[in-house]
Write a structure and sequence with these properties.
The chain has helices at 2-12, 29-39, 58-72, 77-88, 103-128, 138-148. It contains six helices and no strands. The chain has two domains: 2-97, Orthogonal Bundle (Helicase, Ruva Protein, domain 3); 104-148. Helix 2 (29-39) crosses helix 3. With 156 residues, it is mainly α. It is elongated and about 100 Å long.
Length: 156
C-alpha cells in the first residue's frame, strides 16, 4: 500500500517542481516568491515550451540565477523582466506583448483558423452542388454502342 501511495505521489507531483536546485533558493522567502513568479513567466531558450522555473537545462539555471541576483540587487520585478527582454528579446517571455514586432505571432492563429473555416465552407458548398449532366453527341453514342455491342437506341 505504501508503494502505491508513493507511486501516486510521484505521478501527481510534477518533476518540474524540482528544477530549481537547492543552492539557487534565496534565504528571504519574499524574494524567493518573487523570483519564482518571474521565472514562471520566462521561456527556457533551450526547451522553448517550458518556463525557466520548470526546465533543467543549464541555460535555464543560469537565467534563474540572474533573476535572483537582480532581485537581491534591489531591482523590481519589471526591471528584472526588462533587463532580460533587452538581453534576449521578447522571445524570452512566455506571453510576449502585443506590439508591431509580435503582431505576426499574435495574429497567425486567428488567420489559420479563418483560413481553415473558409476551406471547410468551400468544400461543403462544392459537395452540395449537383454535377450537371453532360449530353453525349450522336457520334459518342454510336461509339459506346459499338464497344458494348448493341445497336444505338436499342434497350437492353
Amino acid at each position: 500500500m505504501l508503494r502505491l501511495i508513493l507511486a501516486l505521489f510521484l505521478v501527481v507531483v510534477p518533476a518540474a517542481a524540482w528544477a530549481v536546485q537547492p543552492d539557487e533558493i534565496l534565504k528571504d522567502p519574499k524574494l524567493e516568491t518573487r523570483a519564482r513568479d518571474i521565472s514562471t513567466e520566462l521561456r527556457c531558450l533551450v526547451c522553448q515550451n517550458q518556463s525557466i522555473d520548470d526546465s533543467d537545462a543549464p541555460l535555464a539555471r543560469d537565467l534563474r540565477i540572474i533573476v535572483r541576483e537582480r532581485l537581491q540587487a534591489g531591482d523590481s520585478d519589471t526591471e528584472v523582466r526588462d533587463y532580460l527582454v533587452r538581453r534576449y528579446g521578447d522571445f524570452i517571455l512566455l506571453r510576449p506583448p502585443f506590439k508591431t514586432g509580435t503582431l505576426l505571432l499574435w495574429l497567425t492563429p486567428a488567420a489559420v483558423l479563418l483560413l481553415g473555416a473558409g476551406a471547410l465552407l468551400l468544400l461543403a458548398r462544392r459537395r452540395r452542388e449537383p454535377e450537371s449532366a453532360v449530353e453525349l453527341t450522336e457520334v459518342e453514342r454510336q461509339q459506346i454502342a459499338a464497344i458494348v455491342g448493341k445497336a444505338p437506341g436499342e434497350k437492353r
